[in-house]
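Budget justification, computational time. The allocation requested in the original proposal was used primarily to generate structure tokens for proteins on the priority list. As evidence of use, we reproduce two of the resulting records. The first is shown immediately below.
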Amino acid sequence: MSATVSRVRGVLFFVLHPKRLLALVGGLTGAVLYVWYAAVRAVPGVRRRKAAMRAGRKRPWSA
């Protein structure tokens, strides 16, 4: 089974220029770490909002 020209070009794109692969891996790692850090920082606020919502459901007729 032979590889198509586009697949070979895709492989050569990274094989001939390893800095591109390093930049891609670094960018993806940075994006994942950013999203994880933002999610971890948002946890206390989310817990507070959920607790307030649960408390509000327990007393629906309070003003």
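The second record produced under the same allocation is shown here.
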Amino acid sequence: MDDFIDSLYPELTLETDDIIMSITIKKDYSQIEDFDKRKEEFINDLNDFIKEFSETPESDDFMRYFDD
């Protein structure tokens, strides 16, 4: 089943000095012909994703991981 999903959705790994994040892209950005607009849409979606996550109980749970 994982192979099937892999063939449907591209995956992307983002890495900084502090974080490595692997994400699966479910949205089809090919409908946006202009490269700059497509990139802007993707970045906006990433920002929305992070904002939504920051407002979830899971984000609080994750931060508690670093408590004593």
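A brief technical remark on that second record: The beta strands are 11-15, 20-24.
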